[in-house]
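Recall the central idea of this unit: under ordinary conditions, the amino acid sequence of a chain determines the structure it adopts. In this exercise we apply that idea directly, starting from the sequence alone.
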Amino acid sequence: MNNEKNYCTIRETSRVLGIADCRLREWQKQNLLPGFYAGSRYYVDVSRLQCALDAGTIGAKPEMPVLCGQE
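Accordingly, the structure predicted from this sequence is:
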């Protein structure tokens, strides 16, 4: 049996995955972060988040625009 926690708080998820907690909170406000509220605390489905990160469906960096004269 796997001993990993499936659900973690945002702070715990930040430590486990190495993602800033402010970024995770931003994604949660945009309804991009898989998880649920238990009272006032949000629990992240870490395995689903990891799959989304691996697939590039969340956290993908947008292309940097080319400014005039900097080609």
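The chain has a mean pLDDT of 84.
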